[in-house]
């Protein structure tokens, strides 16, 4: 079968494909669909289930261990292991796995069965007996190969030992396995033989400890000594594309690189703005509904689903949770989308820019702080001008973002997110913070030492839910509550009601790394504000209102440059940001280097999020991955053009040449000659560009130092763009039936 025939058959198969049906959980008594609350988390070994299954003393000991009160004993570990094995096997589990997050933006797992062999010595020899068992030591610790995952040089090939260690803060759960069986998943961290972090989860846990310590110190200064812990909360809006799997299978670039290296945008794509929030295509809705069903059983509080801006682009979003759990749940969401889409003959694309010319995908991280008493520390309430606690946490956040914007830029950088950042649908590479008109006025009034004046749009008599009421002038419609702040989709770090939305994170990234860096930066900002407040209050038991406002004013002045209320896409902002001295980092390798600047390195090690060795390792992992990503793209592009595009163009050119010869023999004019000449010119340009690509690949591979390789690899983008432009011009000319790869209009409109 030729590629062209396969492309035609894939399109025809879409039309005749039967739909997939999945049974929704139903009540045994009424046969009606169950309310979500009745099966939510049924596949999770929650604390409530653990309390039910464990002896009370064992459960009490475990809770103390979770709170940092003591080390887990073998007796407690064995008891929990036995209880979770019985629970999991009752649900059909045959295997368990230590589930961890290596530095690959995905998860890793190795499955072991519960099967154990017992040997008895008899007069006739050894007697073998099969039993099911799961020990406390198996629960607590596993041993994957630490040299085969990205480690930045911390592990040599012959130094293979590493450990996965149970993360007791994240609940265990079961997921579907093959043939109706299930697998018990144990969330873990992943460390080297010497104890260094080789994963994303370890640094996230450290960063939450750092911010909790700094935030509780602040609250204790304000007289709230009953607060023992502060949690980072997170809600991750996940954007993605869904395309037909048959067409996807015919695109080597999508399969290998996650994005199209070639392709012409169709006449209609997103310019009519009719896809956003439009009716979800039936096959997509069926897929997402099944994903939701699996996630609800896993305790993932997925809340929202909708069409995104580009055709074939969608979004799912959860209710916010504690950040460490939210990250696990985001990775489970991505995994569920991948698996369920496969069942529906679809392919999910998480690449930040899979299709040139239409919007890319992000992962908007809605971030806030919450005490163990349930108080949101970034809730401005109805009168933020008088909420001094909120103002202190606000300026501390701005201080961290301003002082360590380079660190945050490094956290969102990758070869794939480079295609999105700064484009006309994504936040720019310049880190800035948006507060909205009302909070900006609050800070300005404090800075200028004057009374607060509500902005004009907020001068409404009635206040409701902390916002204002809009009069729609339509009698049949109720008054609606308006938030204190508008939304700014051009800002990479925007305040949205009672949280910040970190919009610049890439869709396929694990949220762990960028959120860990944000936590570390804000923790440092909190420490600076605490130091200033302690100095200001002197011997007083708690700081006075004047003390607080004085400190807040100092940090308002210090962080003013990071605040921007306008259009982050505009050229004017680029010029203004330069005047303010803000970083405008345009490439990932330059961003990665921010991790190792003296000031940033001190902060990341001072907060305890990284050791110096781990930070050096992380930098090398990032630059090596960047280089490898571009080399893979280069070789994929070369393969596609040489083995399919050029042969198709050659064939079409021969057909044209035969036609020209026949017409000239009949003494007819041959306008095909013009097309023939044009194709020949494009072919020559393509071959020249491919030679340049070959040369650059060789130059990168010949370099020995990763820093030299990544600098040279940055030149690939220009050659990619040149080859793509030429090939896309040929796609406009060549007969559709001859073109070897599924086109954009097929990929974007086939779901």
From TrEMBL:
Report keywords, A-Z: Kinase, Ligase, Transferase
Question: Which SUPFAM superfamilies would you find in this protein's record?
Answer: Glutamine synthetase/guanido kinase
Against InterPro entries, the record matches this protein to: Gln-synt_C, Gln_synt_N, Gln_synth/guanido_kin_cat_dom, Gln_synth_cat_dom, Gln_synth_gly_rich_site, GS_Type-3, GSIII_N
Domain GS beta-grasp: from-to ranges: 94-195
Query: Could you say which EC number(s) this protein's record lists?
Result: 6.3.1.2
Report the domain of life of the source organism: Eukaryota
Q: Name one GO biological process term.
A: glutamine biosynthetic process
Enzyme class, UniProt record, top EC level: ligase
Any one GO molecular function term: glutamine synthetase activity
Which Gene3D superfamilies does this entry report, sorted A to Z? 1.20.120.1560, Glutamine synthetase/guanido kinase, catalytic domain
> Which family is this sequence assigned to?
Belongs to the glutamine synthetase family.
Name this polypeptide is given: Glutamine synthetase, catalytic domain-containing protein
Q: Name the lineage.
A: Eukaryota, Fungi, Fungi incertae sedis, Cryptomycota, Cryptomycota incertae sedis
């Amino acid at each position: 079968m030729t590629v062209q025939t396969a492309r035609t058959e894939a399109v025809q198969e879409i039309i005749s494909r039967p739909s997939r049906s999945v049974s929704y959980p139903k009540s045994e008594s009424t046969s009606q669909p169950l309310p979500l609350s009745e099966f939510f988390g049924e596949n999770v070994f929650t604390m409530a289930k653990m309390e039910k299954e464990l002896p009370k003393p064992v459960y009490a000991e475990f809770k103390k261990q979770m709170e940092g009160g003591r080390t887990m004993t073998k007796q407690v570990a064995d008891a929990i292991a036995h209880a979770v094995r019985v629970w999991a096997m009752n649900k059909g589990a045959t295997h368990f796995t230590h589930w961890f997050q290596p530095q690959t933006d995905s998860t890793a797992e190795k499955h072991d069965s519960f099967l154990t062999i017992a040997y008895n010595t008899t007069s006739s020899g050894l007697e073998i007996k099969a039993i099911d068992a799961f020990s406390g030591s198996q629960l607590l610790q596993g041993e994957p190969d630490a040299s085969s995952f990205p480690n930045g040089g911390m592990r040599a090939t012959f130094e293979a030992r590493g450990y996965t260690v149970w993360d007791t803060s994240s609940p265990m759960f079961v997921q579907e396995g093959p043939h109706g069986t299930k697998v018990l998943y144990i969330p873990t961290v992943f460390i080297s033989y010497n104890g260094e972090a080789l994963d994303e989860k370890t640094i996230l846990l450290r960063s939450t400890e750092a911010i909790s310590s700094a935030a509780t110190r602040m609250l204790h200064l304000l007289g709230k000594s009953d607060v023992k812990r502060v949690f980072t909360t997170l809600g991750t809006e996940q954007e993605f594309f869904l395309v037909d799997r048959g067409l996807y299978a015919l695109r080597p670039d999508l399969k290998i690189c996650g994005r199209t290296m070639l392709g012409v945008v169709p006449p209609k794509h997103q310019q009519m703005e009719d896809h956003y929030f439009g009716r979800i295509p039936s096959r997509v809705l069926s897929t997402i509904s099944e994903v939701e069903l699996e996630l609800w059983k896993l305790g993932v509080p997925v809340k929202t689903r909708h069409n995104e801006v580009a055709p074939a682009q969608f979004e799912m979003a959860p209710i916010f949770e504690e950040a460490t759990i939210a990250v696990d749940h985001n990775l489970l969401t991505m995994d569920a989308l991948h698996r369920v889409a496969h069942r529906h003959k679809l392919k999910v694309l998480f690449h930040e820019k899979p299709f040139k010319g239409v919007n890319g995908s992000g992962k908007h991280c809605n971030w806030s702080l919450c005490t163990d008493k349930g108080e949101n520390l970034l809730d401005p309430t109805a009168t933020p001008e008088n909420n001094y606690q909120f103002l202190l946490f606000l300026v501390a956040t701005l201080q961290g973002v301003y002082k360590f914007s380079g660190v945050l830029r490094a956290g969102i950088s990758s070869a794939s997110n480079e295609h999105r950042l700064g484009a006309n649908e994504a936040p720019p590479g310049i880190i800035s913070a948006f507060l909205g008109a009302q909070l900006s006025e609050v800070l300005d009034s404090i800075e200028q030492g004057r009374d607060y004046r509500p902005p004009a749009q907020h001068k409404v008599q009635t206040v409701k839910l902390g916002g204002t009421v809009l009069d729609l002038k339509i009698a049949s419609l109720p008054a609606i509550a308006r938030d204190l702040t508008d939304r700014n989709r051009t800002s990479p770090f925007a305040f949205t009601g009672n949280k910040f939305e970190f919009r610049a994170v890439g869709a396929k990234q694990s949220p762990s790394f960028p959120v860990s860096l944000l936590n570390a930066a804000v923790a440092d900002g909190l420490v600076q504000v605490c130091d200033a407040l302690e100095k200001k209050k002197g011997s007083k038991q708690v700081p006075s209102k004047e003390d607080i406002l004085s400190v807040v004013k100092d940090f308002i002045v210090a962080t003013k440059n990071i605040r921007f209320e306008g259009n982050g896409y505009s050229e004017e902002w680029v010029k203004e940001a330069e005047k303010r001295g803000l970083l405008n980092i345009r490439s990932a390798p330059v961003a990665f280097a921010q991790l190792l600047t003296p000031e940033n390195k001190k902060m990341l090690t001072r907060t305890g999020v990284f050791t110096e060795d781990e930070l050096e390792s992380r930098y090398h992992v990032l630059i090596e991955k960047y280089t490898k990503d571009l080399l893979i793209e280069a070789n994929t592009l070369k393969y596609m053009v040489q083995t399919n595009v050029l042969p198709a163009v050659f064939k079409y050119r021969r057909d044209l040449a035969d036609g020209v010869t026949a017409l000239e023999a009949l003494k007819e004019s041959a306008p095909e000659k013009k097309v023939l000449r044009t194709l020949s010119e494009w072919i020559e340009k393509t071959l020249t560009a491919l030679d340049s690509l070959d040369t650059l690949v060789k130059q990168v591979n010949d370099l020995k130092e990763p820093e030299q390789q990544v600098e040279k690899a940055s030149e690939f983008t220009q050659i990619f763009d040149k080859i793509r432009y030429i090939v896309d011009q040929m796609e406009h000319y060549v007969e559709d039936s001859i073109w070897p790869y599924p086109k954009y209009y097929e990929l974007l409109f086939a779901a």
